[in-house]
């Protein structure tokens, strides 16, 4: 895991959980692979091991991670697709309606929006 800047607005265990989710969705940690131990993450980020345990437990409860006694925590099979489905659902039901309202409030028309999307797409594919 890479260096993390913790934000004071959200509990650290939630931020850590989101970081693990991002790593899985980005393919940096793959299904069947072990995640770093609670002790290792706590030492790397200088946070309480209970904080790490809480984040990992939520991921176990969400069936994204599984405990293998004596071996550690592993990403479950199908975790990536499950996470994509949940992230899509959250985006479409919670974030997208707010974005649409903001677009309308700012008076941005579809042509402007399409142009910006195309420019962003060209820039991001040109960076690769």
From TrEMBL:
Keywords: DNA-binding, Transcription, Transcription regulation. CDD domains: WHTH_GntR. SUPFAM superfamilies: Winged helix' DNA-binding domain. The keyword rRNA-binding does not apply. InterPro entries: Tscrpt_reg_HTH_GntR (IPR000524), WH-like_DNA-bd_sf (IPR036388), WH_DNA-bd_sf (IPR036390). Signal peptide: none annotated. Residues 10-78 form the HTH gntR-type domain. PANTHER family: GNTR-FAMILY TRANSCRIPTIONAL REGULATOR (PTHR38445:SF10), HTH-TYPE TRANSCRIPTIONAL REPRESSOR YTRA (PTHR38445). This is GntR family transcriptional regulator. It comes from Aliikangiella maris.
């Amino acid at each position: 895991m890479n260096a993390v800047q913790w934000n004071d607005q959200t509990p650290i265990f939630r931020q850590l959980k989101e970081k693990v989710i991002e790593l899985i969705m980005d393919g940096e940690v793959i299904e069947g692979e072990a995640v770093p131990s609670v002790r290792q993450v706590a030492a790397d980020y200088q946070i309480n091991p209970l904080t790490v345990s809480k984040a990992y437990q939520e991921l176990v409860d969400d069936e994204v991670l599984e405990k293998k006694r004596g071996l550690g925590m592993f990403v479950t099979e199908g975790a990536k697709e499950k996470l994509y489905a949940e992230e899509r659902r959250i985006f479409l039901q919670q974030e997208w309606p707010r974005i649409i309202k903001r677009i309308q409030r700012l008076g941005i028309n579809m042509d402007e929006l399409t142009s910006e999307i195309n420019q962003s797409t060209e820039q991001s594919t040109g960076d690769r």
